[in-house]
Each structure stands twice: as structure tokens, then as C-alpha cells.
Amino acid sequence: MLTVFAFLVAIAILIAVHEWGHYRMAVACGVPVLRFSIGFGRPLLRWRNRAGTEFVVAALPLGGYVRMLDGREGPVDPARRHLAFDAQPLRKRAAIVAAGPAANLLLAVLLYAFVGWWGLEQPQPVLGAPVSGSLAEAAGLRAGDRVLAVQEEADAAPRPVRSFDELRWQLAQAALQRRDLTLLVGEPDTPAPRAVALPLAGLQARDVDAALLARIGVVAPWSAPVIGEVRPDGAAAAAGLRAGDRVRAVDGRPVEDAAQLRAWIRAAADADGRVRPQRWVVERGGGLVELEVTPRAERHGDGWIGRVGAMIGAEPALTVVALDPPEALAEGVRRTWEVGALTLRMLGRMVIGEASLRNLSGPLTIADYAGKSAAMGALAFVSFLALVSVSLGVLNLLPLPVLDGGHLMYYLWEAVVGRPPSEIWLERLQRAGIGLLAALMSLALVNDLVRLFG
Questions:
Q1: Backbone angles phi, psi at 32, to 5 degrees
Q2: Residue 160: CA atoms inside 13 Å, Cβ hemisphere, count?
Q3: TM spans, by residue (predicted)?
């Protein structure tokens, strides 16, 4: 229920802001707006303002529109003909069309700025044990290393890293852009932090997923290898493990953090589902206890992994990332730019086949993340809104005939050749745009179904 409610709230807000951008720019340009609708179908609420605009909230909230006075959509009183949208100069028509996506991008800036100013509790940028065989392990990163800053070029100013989430975002961006990155590692008061170069350009990254972060080797923040809640019917309980036990070694190998311990537990099951017992040394009550733990095999995808039936790992150390209002606004602009640029870059790479089409997400994935972010709290939901608002703004600027970007493409043609496209070409492009958009939506829906149920 929370997922459905959060999804509807998110869609209603984003659509309302988008259409509000068109509406406000039309009013500023002197074009009468006949109807402002959030949703389609049977009206649930309706009212009029002094200018005569009818505002509608309809039953199906998966879209919206602004209907302006326009000679192409019906007869116009000759006395008001000069006010119609299609009678406006090119610059006004372009401004009205572009104002919708611009409103979404502006909303994203403000939402990101609000989150940065209010302060969000995030894991500290302290690394868990690098994934075996990863770039991070080869570069010499170790569990417990604190990343102070990242540096893209040798002569570039280091960029401070305030949280693990920010570090992961920088790593993913650099990998997708095929840029090497240098991490500056040490304690906050370290006079000369250690520089660790990560050759991310050689990864040839195609997808933004957990597998990319695993290849880089930075998957989770450091957390102590402590046993949490133990299920009474699990392998941990059968072996005598207790909540609060701190695991010091497995099969004679020192355990550096919880991520490493989880990886060793999963690796206890082979490709045929056979499990080998492990010798654990745990710290309990000030002393050391040696136990034999036999994880239980569980089917995972096409293979098997080991499970012990207990929570593994203490909560990572957290920090509150809060900025001054000017810094928060600058952060909002920067994050909106980065997310928008990344969206365009991924779309371009999907078109030329350098990125997987699996990166496309549809309404089911958006609804799933809306519910998850709402369950995490108001700030997480606001961050989710900002992300989707950027995507909505960027996607609407694509030069597809049925989108705002398609209309801007027509206006660019008109500006260059001095006349609008012919009605025949407009109809052909409209049909092609609808077909392409339907194909993309179908693909996104299939990706959603595979991602959620496959």
C-alpha cells in the first residue's frame, strides 16, 4: 500500500511541476490557458481562477496537460486571434514548450539543495574489505581505509568525499565515463594522505549495477564482523553462535569486516550445492571461542550460496552531511547537472550499443523505489523525487516528436529554413514518434518485470 501511495504522490508532484512550467510561461507570454489538468479521464476535482483557466484533477494520474488557446485545436474568436499559441513568435512558443522540462530540472536543484541543507545521515567513507580480484584490491586498498577525497586529473584540485554514498557515486560516474580516478586515503588530520590510483578507464563499463561496483571492489562501507539476530532454526544457532559474538577468524584467516565474512559464508557452497564446514573463532565475553559452522546451501540464480541464518555485521559508522545554504544550492546545481549528463550519456551509449538496454526502467521500478525510499524516511523520498525529476526533465528534451524536445526540434527547423514543417511531415513524424515511444515503454516494462520478478 505504501508503494502505491508513494508512487502516486511522486507522479502527481512531478507532473504538476512539469505542467506548471508550461502554464506559468504561457501566462507570462500572454497566451490564455483554457485548462490545466493533472491526470486523464473523468475529473475528480475542478475549479476556475479569475483568468478563466479551468484546473482539473482527473481519475488517471499518469500524465497531464495544459490546453492553451490555439487555432489548430479549434475556432478562435478573431478578436483574440493574436493571443493564440500558434500566433505567437517563435521565441515565445519555444519558451513555453521548454518551460516544462526546465521546471523539472529546477525542482531537482531545489530538492537536492534542501537535502544538502537539512542534512542526511549517511555511512562514513570508510571502506570494507575489497572484493577479491577487484581493482581496489590490486591497487592496495584495505578494509578500514578512509577516503578523504577523489582526484580526476593529476593537476586537478581534490574533491572532498563526505560519505560512502558520495564515493560510490564518484566511482560509478568515472567508470561509465572511462576516466581513471585517484583516491586520497588517510585520517581527517593526515598531513599527507596516501594516493591510490584506480584504473577505471579499462573496465569498459556498460551497466550501472552491483556487478560494476564489484569489479571496482568498493561494495559496502566498513562494518564490524559482529553477529546480530540469530534465527533459531538456522546454521548459526546450530553451531552455537550468539548475538554479539565478534568473528575474529574463519579457517585460520583473520576477518577484517562484515562484508568479507559474508563473502566467505556465501563461498562455502560449491557449484553443486555441497557445503564444507568452517572453523570460526569468535570473541565472546572477553575470551575466544572456537566453533564449527556449517552454512546451509541455498539456490541463488543459477548457482548456490551458503547461508547461516543470522544477521552479519554491525551498523556502519554514520555521519550527517549538512551544508550551508549557498553550498547546498551549489550542490543541488552540481548534482542535477551530473545526473542529467549521466542520463544523456547512458541513453547515447544504449543507442550505439555500448550500454545495455537493461538500464531502461519503467513505472514498476519507479513505483518500487518510491515505496522503498518512502519507507526509509522523508529525506530519502525527497532524494528519490529529485532523481526522477531530473530524468523526467532530460527525457522530455529528447528530440522525439511526441515530447517537448520534438516540438523544439520543429521550431529549430522553422528558425533555420524560415517556415514550419509541412502537415504531412508532422503527421509522419508524430506516428513514428508514437511507435518509438511505445517500443521504449514496452522494453522498459519488460525490464521492470525481469528486475522485480525474474
A1: -65, 135
A2: 6
A3: 94-115, 378-398
Q: What is the pTM of this model?
A: 0.83
Residue 58 sits at φ, ψ, to 5 deg, of -100, 170
Cα 278 off chain centre by: 38
Q: pLDDT band for position 66 (50/70/90)?
A: very high
Instruction: Specify the DSSP element, H or E, that contains 228.
Output: strand 227-230
Catalytic residues: 19
Separation of alpha carbons 165 and 430, rounded Å: 42
Tell me the C-alpha distance between 130 and 135, whole Å: 8
CB contact at 8 A, 148 and 195: no
Cell of 62: 499518469
Distance in angstroms (rounded) separating the CA atoms of residues 194 and 140:
11
Domains in the chain (CATH in brackets) are: 89-119+324-454 (no CATH), 121-221 (2.30.42.10), 227-314 (2.30.42.10)
Length of the chain: 454
CA atoms of 356 and 206, how far apart (whole Å): 6
* Cβ-defined contacts of 102-105 (< 8 Å, 24+): 102/21, 102/393, 103/17, 103/18, 103/20, 103/21, 103/22, 103/24, 103/393, 104/14, 104/17, 104/18, 104/21, 104/389, 104/390, 104/392, 104/393, 104/396, 105/336, 105/340, 105/389, 105/390, 105/393, 105/394
CA-wise closest residue to 84 among 47, 29, 38, 40: 29
Q: Characterise 286 by phi-psi region: left (phi > 0), alpha (psi -120 to 50), beta (else).
A: left
Q: Where are the alpha helices (DSSP H) in 119-154?
A: 135-139
Give the tens place of pLDDT for each residue, 331-383.
999 999 989 988 888 888 777 777 777 777 777 777 788 888 888 888 889 99
Owner of C-alpha cell 560449491: 270
Q: Rounding to the nearest 10 degrees, give the CA dihedral for residues 109, 112, 115, 117.
A: -50
Which residue is it, cell 496537460?
A: 65
Phi, psi of 321 (to 5 degrees): -95, 105
Kindly list the distances between the CA atom of residue 317 and the CA atoms of 122, 164, 237, 256, 320, in Å, as whole numbers in the listed order: 8, 10, 27, 15, 11
Q: Which residues pair with 45 in a beta bridge?
A: 57
pLDDT in tens, 108-126: 999 999 999 998 888 999 9
pLDDT of 389-416, one tens digit each?
999 999 999 888 888 988 899 889 888 8
